[in-house]
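Budget justification aside, the reviewers requested a transparent look at the raw inputs and outputs of the sequence design task funded under Objective 1. We therefore reproduce one unedited record. The lines immediately below are the structure tokens for a 329-residue chain.
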């Protein structure tokens, strides 16, 4: 087991660390614990980023940070929880304002209004707003490490495919707008006028496109980005990991490692409680299967704690296992 400390020592160019995996297994916990360790124990400037208002960083760091920008929780440890819905709202309002300005009209045609409003509820918009925010922080380059706690949908891996689709989508609109602009220009010349306004929307689209492209390139760069899958010793989790690994291959991503979380201490197999003893035995069987299937990829094993890891003290406990795992749990 390499542990995340040694991984980062051996991969010095890593900037972005992403925990992927199904919901409820420990992505947020691992993100928070790693950010805590790198910032407080190693003195690296860290940004821990999330978009999920439920089961959130606010909760785990025991401080309300939702929608408040970058908050310093401890020395070098910055946490951000973006309000994706608010960002979408602002973005939509901005597009509408620009259309009004461009066409010098108070009322946006109903059809267009409908089109803009429906795109606000598209899941793709939520993801787009998330990457947009991530890309902005990344491009600013203020931090040594960016730890992204993935939104609860899909695998967190899906977002690479999403970035691809989004950028194609933006491409198409850009193309259509470019054509429209050319026609407008011709029409204006024929009327003996110059086109008055710049195409603000086209500018906006170019901007989104370049941010998405930048973000996608960083994500696909195995030197800069590390992906860790968080799993638990259970049947569903193993099946899920196998599927996720296939997705990784298809998207051209490399899995940096697997973190096995919520492992009951093996010495409990002698516990007088039959229920507990059986659960431990079951987990040990699945752990063997995990070792057989993904042996070389296991980066850390984290035990099940007697309560939910919250607050800096508990997170530092989790971090010990995550970054420098002992041989046995
Ligand atoms: N090792 C652990 N021991 C005890 N509880 C844990 C452990 N890891 C995670 N939990 C708890 O399990 C729940 C899900 O963890 P979380 O990190 O929020 O998962 P995710 O972000 O993947 O949905 C949380 O209530 C968390 O406190
Ligand atoms: Mg979470």
């Amino acid at each position: 087991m390499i542990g995340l400390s040694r991984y980062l020592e051996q991969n010095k160019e890593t900037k972005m660390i992403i925990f992927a995996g199904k919901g409820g297994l420990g992505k947020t916990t691992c993100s928070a614990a790693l950010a805590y360790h790198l910032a407080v124990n190693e003195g690296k400037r860290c940004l821990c980023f999330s978009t999920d208002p439920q089961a959130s960083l606010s909760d785990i760091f025991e401080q309300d940070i939702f929608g408040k920008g970058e908050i310093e929780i401890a020395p070098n440890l910055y946490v951000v929880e973006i309000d994706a819905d608010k960002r979408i709202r602002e973005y939509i309002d901005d597009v509408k304002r620009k259309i009004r300005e461009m066409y010098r009209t108070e009322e946006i045609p109903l059809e267009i209004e409908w089109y803009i409003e429906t795109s606000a509820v598209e899941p793709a918009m939520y993801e787009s707003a998330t990457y947009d925010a991530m890309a902005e922080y990344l491009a600013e380059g203020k931090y040594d490490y960016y730890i992204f706690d993935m939104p609860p949908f899909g695998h967190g891996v899906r977002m690479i495919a999403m970035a691809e689709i989004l950028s194609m989508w933006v491409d198409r609109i850009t193309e259509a707008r470019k054509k429209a602009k050319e026609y407008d220009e011709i029409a204006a010349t024929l009327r003996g006028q110059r086109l008055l306004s710049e195409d603000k929307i086209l500018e906006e689209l170019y901007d989104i496109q370049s941010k998405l492209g930048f973000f996608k390139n960083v994500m696909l760069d195995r030197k800069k980005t590390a992906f860790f899958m968080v799993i638990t010793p259970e049947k569903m989790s193993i099946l899920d990991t196998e599927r996720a690994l296939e997705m990784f291959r298809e998207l051209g991503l490399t899995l940096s490692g697997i973190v096995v979380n919520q492992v009951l201490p093996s010495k409990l197999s002698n516990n007088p409680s039959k229920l507990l003893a059986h659960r431990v035995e079951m987990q040990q069987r699945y752990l063997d299967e995990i070792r057989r299937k993904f042996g070389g990829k296991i980066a850390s094993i984290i035990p099940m704690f007697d309560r939910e890891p919250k607050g800096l003290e508990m997170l530092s406990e989790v971090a010990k296992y995550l970054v420098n795992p002992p041989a046995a749990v």
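The chain has one domain: 3-86+124-163+210-323. The radius of gyration is 23 Å. Computational costs for records of this kind are itemized in the attached budget.
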